[in-house]
Amino acid sequence: MKSYRPLLIFFLILWSSVSFSGEADVVEVSVSENRKNSFSFNVSVLHQDTGWEHYANKWEVVDEAGTILGTRTLYHPHVNEQPFTRSLSGVEIPEQVKTVTIRAHDSVHGYGGKTISVELR
Asked: How crowded is residue 31: how many other Cβ atoms within 10 Å of its Cβ?
C-alpha cells in the first residue's frame, strides 16, 4: 500500500503559504486634482505577497455606486517591499461624485481587505 503522507504534507505546506497571506489592505491614500474632474492617486497597499502564486495584483478607485473609475494593475509580487506605494494619474471622476473608495485585490482572495474612502470636493 502506498503512503500518501509526503503528498499530504506537501499540499498542507502549499495551502498554508497561500491561505495565511491574507487579503490586500489599502493603508494610505493621497489624492490631488490635476485639472477639473481629473485626479491622481498615490495608494499604499499592504499584503504579505509570497510570490507569483499569491500577491496583490491591483487596486481600484470606485464611486459610491460601485462603478470602477480607475484601476492600477500591479504586474509583479512585492515580497520584499511592504507596504508598497503606486500611483495612478488621469482618473476622470464626474463632478457629482463626492467620495471614492480605494480597494485592493489579490490573486487568491480577490477583494476583501481594508479599504479607504476619501472625499474629493
From this structure: 17
Q: Which residues span the domain enclosing 113?
A: 5-119
State the total domains in the chain.
1
What's the Cα-to-Cα distance from 76 to each of 86, 95, 113, rounded to whole Å? Answer: 12, 34, 19
**DSSP strands (E only) in the chain:** 25-35, 38-46, 56-62, 68-73, 84-92, 99-106, 116-119
What is the distance of C-alpha 117 from the center of its chain?
14
CATH of the domain at 82: 2.60.40.730
Q: What is the pLDDT of residues 54-101, one digit of tens each?
A: 999 999 999 999 999 999 999 999 988 889 999 999 999 999 999 999
Query: In the 8-state DSSP scheme, what is residue 113?
Result: S
Helix then strand then coil, % of the chain, to nearest 5:
10, 45, 40
How far apart are alpha carbons 120 and 70 in whole angstroms? 15
